[in-house]
Amino acid sequence: MKLQAPGSQFHVFRRPGKTRRRAAINPQPATSGFRRAFTLLEVMFAIVAFCTATFAILALVSSALRNARALEQPMVDAGAVAGELSLTNQLVEGTEDGNLGDLLGDDYQNYRYTYDVEEVETNKLFRVDLSVRRTDRPGDPVVSKMSTLFFRPHSPAGSLDPGGGPIP
Questions:
Q1: pTM of the shown model
Q2: CB within 10 Å: which end of the chain, N or C, has fewer?
Q3: pLDDT single digits (tens) 78-114
Q4: What are the DSSP calls for 106-168, one per residue?
């Protein structure tokens, strides 16, 4: 049997009734060399929070891109056609149509306008009903519609003037 020095951990000879406690020999706790790790539940909550935040950010970016794309498309208003008609001195009853790109430029090539001129009073007051349609979509949906009144005293006799009628 080997004998160890009195300062070492194990002694061959001990006094009866006196036992040494391990803490007295090794004052540091047994877990001091280890770090506390995350539990599986904590890791799962962290992953759920990260995924939720990621999807919220992706939804926000997607919405911003959709809005930016909508701003790139030209805003179409029948008022542009009404503005062109306001420059004329005479209106003739009837229906006309045309390509909006001819009035406003290449960005509007997929739009067609239609207007119907009708005399509403005998004093050369005309109502013009305008509509703009998009031709590159199924069913040619109406994008803009408006009605306006024009007073054009130099216009030829219309359907309400005595002896007049629509001019072909």
A1: 0.53
A2: N
A3: 888 898 888 888 888 999 999 988 988 888 888 999 9
A4: GGGTTEEEEEEEEEEETTTEEEEEEEEEETTSTT--EEEEEEEEEE-TTSPP-TTSTT-----
- With 0-12 / 13-18 / 19 or more C-beta atoms within 10 angstroms meaning exposed / middle / buried, residue 83 is exposed
In-domain check, residue 127: yes
Structure tokens that stand for 158 in this block: 């219309």
What tokens does 38 get?
A: 């995350």
State how far the Cα of 114 lies from the Cα of 78, in Å rounded to an integer. 9
Residue 104 lies in a domain: yes
Name the residue among 163, 151, 167, 162 with its Cα closest to residue 90. 151
- Six-digit token string for 122: 């005998």
